[in-house]
Design goal:
626 residues; alpha/beta; Rossmann fold; Four Helix Bundle (Hemerythrin (Met), subunit A); 2 domains; 8-stranded mixed sheet; disordered N terminus
Length: 626
């Protein structure tokens, strides 16, 4: 099948550029600050709108916004009855129970009212959408517990739970881990600090309604939930209090002052609502919240209890959403601009797969060629780069290493050379077979010195290898080519092909260098005219010294080149000329020649194109969500 016709590349249908109207969230949207009532006239639809945005913002993509949508955030101590309040709002238990810290991350609970008999009831988890809605609450609790253990139980990522039922009020609440001051055995020592930090992160948002849960049988001034709420909302303008465990208060005491707002200890402008969380024993004894409130707070029964709490939270959330909606729409417009910008960066591989791949290949090849040839990626690039560095390796580093090799080897053999100056030099002048022993000495000295060249030659090849790797890595960076940002598999394939070519060629270069040096050291021979002329000059000089005197003074002059040094310098000049050519042929030319690594890349890419150009799951989910 031709790549461009593959059915798996079908994109969700969208109109570009994206707008609030095109998203279908606000069907009648025109301007962010006008006509809000006509955009979303009913409270249920308004909260479901916020749920959509909340779901969208949960996707880990490019929208790192500190501004959350309007939501109710539940805070309180671990023993305040916070989870029981949430279960009361839902109508049944959905959260795992146990000892220690059970709620280990934010849980966003979206309650969605359904029409009885018209829509499937059940619970849906964001991370298990493929499983559909479930009515097995034990299974749901098990899945939530498993999700909370991800990342080693770190309290970071939120879990979204959607409850569809005709028996719930459309509402969205965020349940946070309970605040605790004493860490249990086996828990991180800083868990208390992390929970408080997470709570602050959520309640400090001005779009958040704070639901501070406090036990009525505990000193209200020490309520962890209220203390934290007051820190984030000093005036209490967006804080509502919930008193739990009314039935457990000491005999002769009540919470009437708190529930009526007459108490000076706590000032929350959205009110204080009392609830009674039933235990299993209460259920068995037919003890109800309504009966308790009727017997103890009969005049306040209409403003307390879980049913009233549901209704009140729904009203507050709707009012808060309307209040925040203009700003929310402005932020949504800004985020859509970012979205359009990033969607424009996503390569159009959906209908032109082969064309896209060829473009990426050519772009990558050209950028590497340019750098190797000495052109920087940008005019602002002020560092040594690419071809300039390689030229520097050949002309400076390699030459310097070769000079060091000559000095090192000279130093190790200086006594021998000086003491046997006439033997090693005069002997080489008598290559007529009668002075074979002298020639053997010369050959041994020459071979020892030539072996010192191998290290600098190998190091030169390795330096060029490293620089080409750096060039490739720079061009594979996400910020330099968006194709590698959105298609990491493609980037990894390019990297593998380059590594394979360079590693194989470097091994071949090293083998040839070692063999070349071996040949140069094993056979002492030359037909080079310049070298032979220098040898002849040296011979005449030595013969003259021998004729005039014993040559003792000249034999100690290390500045005058002897036979070994002349031969070494001649070999060194050939090596310095040959090694850069060899390295360039094996490591550089394949990346500048049209028939080089580009062919290998094309073969590898077109072989596995289906795997290479699949959008990452998170990005694909965002595109589908939009």
């Amino acid at each position: 099948m031709h790549p461009s016709s593959s059915p798996w590349l079908t994109m969700p249908k969208m109109s570009f550029p994206l707008t609030i109207r095109s998203l279908g969230i606000f069907p009648n949207a025109s301007k962010p600050k006008s006509g809000l009532s006509s955009i979303m006239p009913d409270s249920r639809g308004l909260i479901e709108l916020v749920n959509k945005l909340q779901k969208l913002f949960q996707v880990k993509w490019t929208w790192n916004t500190k501004n959350r949508v309007a939501q109710i955030v539940v805070v309180g101590s671990q023993s305040s009855g916070k989870s029981s309040v949430l279960d009361g709002l839902v109508g049944f238990s959905i959260l795992p129970r146990g000892s220690g810290t059970v709620t280990k991350c934010p849980i966003i609970v979206q309650l969605i009212t359904t029409d009885a008999g018209k829509e499937e009831e059940g619970i849906e988890l964001q991370d298990f959408l493929e499983d559909g809605r479930s009515q097995d609450y034990d299974e749901v609790r098990a899945k939530i517990a498993a999700l909370m253990e991800r990342n080693g139980g770190a309290i970071v990522d939120a879990i979204i739970v959607r409850v569809y039922s005709p028996n719930v009020v459309t509402l969205t609440v965020v349940d946070l881990p309970g605040i605790k001051r004493i860490v249990s055995y086996g828990e991180p020592s800083d868990l208390d600090e992390r929970i408080v930090s997470l709570s602050r992160k959520y309640i400090n948002e001005k779009n958040a309604i704070i639901l501070a849960v406090s036990p009525a049988n505990y000193e209200i001034c020490n309520s962890e939930g209220l203390l934290l709420a007051k820190e984030a909302d000093p005036e209490g303008n967006r804080t509502i209090g919930v008193l739990t465990k009314l039935d457990l208060m000491d005999e002769g005491t009540d919470a009437r002052g708190l529930l009526t707002g007459m108490s000076k200890d706590v000032q929350v402008k959205l009110g204080m609502i009392g609830v009674v969380n039933r235990s299993q024993k209460d259920i068995e004894n037919n003890f109800t919240e309504k009966s308790f409130l009727s017997n103890n707070y009969g005049d306040l029964i209409g403003q307390n209890g879980v049913p009233f709490l549901r209704k009140r939270l729904n009203e507050l959330l709707v009012q808060h959403i309307y209040k925040c909606l203009p700003e929310l729409m402005e932020k949504l417009e800004d985020m859509l601009k970012q979205c359009n910008k990033q969607l424009a960066e996503i390569p159009n591989v959906m209908t032109e797969t082969d064309k896209f791949l060829i473009q990426v290949l050519h772009r990558f090849e050209n950028e590497i060629k340019k750098e190797i040839q000495g052109s920087p990626r940008t005019p602002e690039y002020h560092h040594l780069y690419g071809g300039i560095v390689i030229k520097d390796i050949f002309e400076k580093h390699f030459a310097k290493d070769m000079e060091a090799a000559e000095k090192t080897s000279d130093g190790s053999m200086t006594p021998c050379v000086c003491n046997n100056f006439y033997i090693s030099t005069y002997g080489i002048l008598l290559l007529d077979g009668t002075e074979a022993n002298y020639f053997a000495v010369f050959r041994k000295l020459a071979q020892n010195q030539i072996h010192h060249i191998e290290g600098p030659a190998l190091k030169c090849a390795e330096r060029v290898y490293d620089e080409i790797m750096k060039i490739a890595d720079r061009n594979l960076a996400e910020e330099n080519d968006h194709a590698f940002k959105y298609f990491p598999e493609l980037r990894q394939l390019f990297k593998r092909v380059i590594n394979r070519i360079l590693d194989g060629n470097l091994d071949e270069v090293k083998k040839q260098i070692i063999e070349y040096i071996r040949v140069q050291s094993s056979v002492v021979f030359s037909m080079d005219y310049k070298f032979l002329q220098e040898i002849a000059d040296l011979r005449r000089k030595l013969e003259k010294e021998l004729y005039v005197g014993d040559g003792e003074n000249s034999s100690d002059n290390e500045n005058e080149p002897g036979m070994v040094k002349l031969y070494f310098r001649w070999i060194k000049s050939h090596v310095q000329d040959y090694i850069p050519k060899l390295v360039a042929d094996k490591l550089i030319i394949p990346f500048t020649n049209d028939a080089g690594f580009g062919v290998a890349l094309k073969v590898s890419v077109m072989k596995d194109y289906k795997t290479l150009i699949q959008l990452p799951k998170t990005l694909w989910n965002v595109v589908k969500e939009i």
